[in-house]
Write a structure and sequence with these properties.
It is built from 4 helices and 7 strands. The protein is an alpha+beta fold. The strands form 2 sheets. It has a 4-stranded antiparallel sheet. It has a 3-stranded antiparallel sheet with strand order 5-6-7. Strand 2 and strand 3 form a beta hairpin.
C-alpha cells in the first residue's frame, strides 16, 4: 500500500500550520519502518481513535483512555509512583492532532491538555494492554472515591 508521507500533513490546504481540525472522521495515513501505524482515524461521534499498525492489528482507543494515559509529565510524573490520577475525563474530546516528526502525534484535548507526545511505540503498547490499563484506571478511581464524570459546575 502506498501512502502519502507524513510530511504531507505539514500544511493542509487552507491552514497556517500543520494542525488539523477533527471532523466526524479524519484519516491520517503514512508508512514507516518498525511498529508504526498505517492508518489513524478519529471518530468524534464515538470519541475513539482507530489505529491500524503494520502488523495488521487495529485498535479503537477511546479519547478518555488516551487522555488518562497521556505520556505527559503532568499525568505520568517524572518517575515511578508520581502518576497523577485523572478523574472527570469521560466527556473529553480531541480538538486537534499534530504530527510530531515521523514518530508520534500530539493531540489537543477539549480540556486544554496538549503536552502528551504519543509515540508509535507508546500507542502500540497501550493499545495492546488496553483492557488491563482500563481496569487499573477504574480501580484507582474507585479507591480514590473519584469519578469518570466531569465535576458539576456551580
Amino acid at each position: 500500500m502506498n501512502h502519502p508521507p507524513l510530511a504531507a500533513l505539514a500544511a493542509p490546504k487552507g491552514t497556517q500550520s500543520g494542525r488539523r481540525q477533527p471532523q466526524s472522521a479524519v484519516a491520517i495515513r503514512w508508512h514507516n519502518d518498525g511498529v508504526t501505524p498505517t492508518d489513524i482515524i478519529l471518530h468524534n461521534r464515538s470519541r475513539q481513535l482507530e489505529i491500524t499498525f503494520e502488523d495488521g492489528r487495529t485498535y479503537k482507543l477511546p479519547y478518555e483512555f488516551l487522555r488518562v494515559y497521556s505520556p505527559s509529565a503532568e499525568v505520568r510524573g517524572h518517575g515511578r509512583g508520581q502518576e497523577t490520577l485523572q478523574p472527570g475525563k469521560r466527556e473529553v474530546t480531541i480538538t486537534e492532532v499534530e504530527p510530531v516528526g515521523r514518530y508520534a502525534i500530539r493531540p489537543t484535548f477539549s480540556d486544554g491538555h496538549n503536552s502528551g507526545i504519543y509515540s508509535w511505540d507508546y500507542l502500540y503498547e497501550i493499545a495492546v494492554g488496553q483492557d488491563k490499563l482500563w481496569n487499573d484506571y477504574l480501580a484507582r478511581l474507585a479507591a480514590a472515591g473519584a469519578s469518570r464524570d466531569p465535576a458539576s459546575k456551580p
